[in-house]
Design brief:
49% of the residues lie in helices and 5% in strands. It contains 17 helices and 6 strands. A 3-stranded mixed sheet has the order 1-3-2, with no helix packed on it. The protein has a 3-stranded antiparallel sheet with strand order 4-5-6. Bound molecules: s-citryldethia Coenzyme A.
Length: 443
């Protein structure tokens, strides 16, 4: 007996072979479920029941290893082939020929800007780089050695209290000014967090400089009248921001989408992304990778370290990826940028350790069998260190780049008619129906 679960109106009907026929061996019933875009709708499984008043079947997919949460036109990744495209443009071409603010426009608007559009976009972002003076006072309240990522998390969230109108998420004009503010103020908040951690006075934005140049000025300016960024470092930072701009449904973007699905303001949704990115398995991996290189200290210690990894005592931070089962295309580009930056700043012995680690990992069957290749976080830490950034700033730099992706994904989710508040189900494994026991009778 086949129970049709697909709509018979034709619009949603799949062609005959684009479907699954499932036999429920508990009842002998057969179900036909349409296959759309390589997926089946999990809600179709709810029609598979034993008793009529059953909830029906669900999928069980901890960590969402095989679950598509949305339709998106922003970023395409082919993990097997090591392909990454933003709105269809290969990351290699964008890193080579575009700028971070142009890529941010592309991710958010879907098309590359005309010259006038880009000029206006840059102008709007430039004139919104300052933050309310109360934000400075708020940030001064942190301990002298507070981790800058923790400060960034709190200050991004605090922006929602300075722009209460941002809760009007259905108003495109209100959304747009928040997008501009978020892109403009993220480097300022990041730089203030750095200067706080260094015990130095905060440096205000210099609107005569480029986006990366202004960030470098807010990081490094001391007594000079105007900070002049080295154009090679300015370019290297811009490329790093491009490479970190978006990466489809990674953990932090999923956090932004999930929190944003409650119709909270975008600052609170992006703060959730900052919190997720803070973790050492995600954006914190660049900091963890450099700490790992420092701990290895010399190439002579690599064999023992690799032994520890194989015995499960260590993780090779900056290696492996949930999607890429080939070399992360961003790591290839960053590896080349490392050489360009070190020409300016002088070499770094940790690079020799990194190159030797990569060589071993690409040949050793433990890593080859598990398809563990260097990811975006393996080499980026070396550039950040060459730029004089303390390790605690590495995830903060990742967050600056990823802000454009978080915003683009949030906007796409808001306009997606299929989306509603994210609320997964569970398999309950606990006790049922227990009576309350007074405290004097508990053992
Ligand atoms: C980012 O999702 C994104 O797109 C993220 C990101 C983005 O742009 O948003 O690309 C940015 O977060 C890059 C990843 C940065 N994280 C790290 O470099 C941390 C080290 N890598 C991992 O911990 C791990 O590889 C993950 C978290 C990245 C992916 O983990 P998975 O897909 O859940 O894989 P897994 O942990 O199940 O590992 C599979 C096997 C296991 O071995 P067995 O248990 O089968 O024997 O591979 C092993 C793992 O032990 N393994 C590693 C390893 N990564 C996986 N072993 C040693 N070193 C590693 N780095």
């Amino acid at each position: 007996m086949t129970t049709q679960t697909q709509e018979q109106d034709g619009a949603g009907a799949a062609t005959a072979n684009e479907s699954l026929t499932i036999t429920d061996n508990r009842t002998g019933k057969q179900y036909e479920i349409p296959i759309e875009d390589g997926t089946i709708r999990a809600t179709e499984l709810r029609n598979i029941k034993v008793e009529e008043d059953d909830f029906g079947l669900m999928t069980y997919d901890p960590a969402y290893m095989a679950t598509a949460s949305c339709r998106s036109a922003i970023t395409f990744i082919d993990g097997e082939k090591g392909i990454l495209e933003y709105r269809g443009y290969p990351i290699e071409q964008l890193a080579e020929r575009s700028s971070y603010l142009e890529v941010a426009y592309l991710l958010i608007h879907g098309e590359l800007p005309t010259k006038d559009q880009l000029d206006e976009w840059i102008h709007q972002i430039t004139i919104h780089t300052f933050v309310h003076e109360n934000i400075k006072e708020f940030m001064h309240g942190f301990r002298y050695d507070a981790h800058p990522m923790g400060m960034l998390l709190a200050s991004v969230s605090a922006l929602s209290t300075f722009y209460p109108e941002a809760t009007a998420i259905k108003d495109p004009d209100v959304r747009y000014i928040q997008v501009i503010r978020m892109l403009a103020k993220m480097p300022t908040l990041a730089a203030f967090s750095f200067r706080h951690n260094q015990g130095k006075p905060y440096v205000y934005p210099d609107n005569e400089l480029s986006y990366p140049g202004n960030f470098l000025s807010m990081i490094y300016k001391m007594t000079e009248i105007r900070y002049e960024p080295d154009p090679r470092l300015e370019h290297a930072l811009d490329v790093l921001f491009i490479l970190h701009a978006d990466h489809e449904q990674n953990a932090s973007t999923s956090a932004v989408r999930s929190v944003g699905s409650t119709q909270v303001d975008p600052y609170s949704a992006v703060a959730a992304g900052v919190a997720a990115l803070y973790g050492p398995l995600h954006g914190g991996a660049n900091e963890a990778a450099l700490r790992m290189l420092r701990r290895i200290e010399s190439k002579d210690n690599i064999p023992d370290f690799i032994k520890g990894v194989k015995e499960g005592e260590e993780r090779l931070m900056g290696f492996g990826h949930r999607v890429y089962k080939n070399y992360d295309p961003r790591a290839k580009i960053i590896k080349k940028a490392v050489e360009d930056v070190l020409e300016v700043t002088g070499t770094n012995p940790l690079l020799d350790i990194a190159l030797e680690l990569e060589k071993i990992a690409l040949e050793d069957e433990y890593f080859v069998d598990r398809k563990l290749y260097p990811n975006v976080d393996f080499y980026s830490g070396l550039i950040y260190e060459a730029l004089g950034m303390p390790m605690e700033m590495f995830p903060v730099l990742f967050a600056i780049g990823r802000t454009s992706g978080w915003i683009a994904q949030w906007l796409e989710m808001i306009d997606d008619k299929e989306q509603k508040i994210a609320r997964p189900r569970q398999i309950y494994t606990g006790e049922r129906g227990r009576d309350y026991v007074p405290i004097d009778r508990r053992s």
